[in-house]
Design a protein that fits this description.
alpha/beta; 9 strands; about 20% strand; about 300 residues; nine-stranded mixed β-sheet; 11 helices
């Protein structure tokens, strides 16, 4: 005997109707896209140049979460150290932000794990000498050339390791150039010394605590930490920031959302306020490998 809906017990008729409604809603969900402005959730793991630590964690991260719903997890250290960690399998992330375009080469190609297929240079920040306003050398730094002050007896200066951080390379370059241009051999001694080398993420705190009189920083670090600076006169050295979504990123959707936010008007406003000079449009390497939904963003 054929069973009709009306011949089923009441409870079975209710279950059948409910199942029909659920199937209808599921089909509707497939047909109706999520609004572009809808909030999402979940993490994005960013591996960033240490000079951006305060900016990303204290300003960009909260603004990104408010705009999208995604949570920023930032790990900051020297750009070369990050590249080595990614390549060696000790660091995993979704987005890589470097302070030097050249660092990306260490992650390109099959021999390097094919972690990076493209990257975009989106901004720069000049190398500056940041100093503690309470230092006994503060007045001298405000009134004399920087290279005539940092070699004075008792002056404590900090920089980063050039083997793990592009900023360390720039600091050594600035010291060597000033030593040659102004005939100050002591500056070359400072450049070759290892006693003044500190982890990039510790340098700001050491200066703020008064354990250093001055240090080599990018302008973006000084702005985010609100300490005084003097320009590195006689040269035009700067950090050049690049960004990419790493291949095999565990959280690819949130990674793309982060890149879109950072390069949006809201993200660019935060960067500009903190001394990052925007490159518009970003300078792209490996353009053919850029995901199609990001190509428009990187070309405008």
């Amino acid at each position: 005997m054929t069973t009709t809906p009306h011949s089923l017990p009441a409870r079975q008729r209710w279950l059948a109707a409910a199942a029909t409604v659920c199937l209808g809603l599921s089909a509707l969900a497939v047909l109706v896209p999520v609004p572009a402005g809808a909030s999402a959730s979940g993490p994005v793991d960013v591996l960033s140049a240490g000079s951006l630590q305060n900016l990303l964690q204290l300003q960009v991260g909260p603004a990104f979460q408010q705009a999208t719903g995604y949570t920023l997890n930032d790990t900051s250290m020297g750009s070369d150290a990050i590249a080595s960690g990614i390549k060696g399998g000790t660091l995993q992330g979704d987005v890589f932000i470097s302070a030097s375009p050249a660092v990306n080469a260490a992650l390109e190609g099959s021999a390097n794990g094919n972690w990076v297929s493209w990257y975009a240079e989106f901004g720069s920040s000049p190398l500056v000498l940041g100093y503690n306003a309470s230092s006994r050398f503060a007045r001298a730094l405000r009134t004399k050339p920087w290279y005539d002050v940092i070699d004075e007896p008792g002056f404590l200066i900090g920089r980063t390791d050039p083997t793990t951080d592009p900023k360390g390379v720039l600091a050594v370059t600035a010291l060597d150039q000033a030593a040659k241009a102004h005939h100050i051999p002591a500056l070359k001694t400072i450049a070759s010394s290892t006693s003044n080398v500190y982890p990039e993420t510790s340098l700001v705190g050491l200066l703020q605590a008064g354990q250093l009189d001055a240090g080599f920083f990018y302008g973006v670090e000084a702005a985010a930490a609100s300490f005084k600076t003097v320009p590195i006169t006689g040269t035009h050295l700067a950090g050049e920031y690049t960004i990419t979504v790493l291949n095999r990123a565990p959280h690819e959707a949130s990674a793309r959302a982060f890149l879109q936010f950072l390069l949006s008007k809201a993200g660019q406003k935060i960067l500009k306020r903190n001394g990052v000079v925007s490159i518009t449009p970003p300078k792209v390497s490996g353009r053919s490998s850029v995901p199609s939904d990001l190509k428009g963003l990187l070309s405008r």
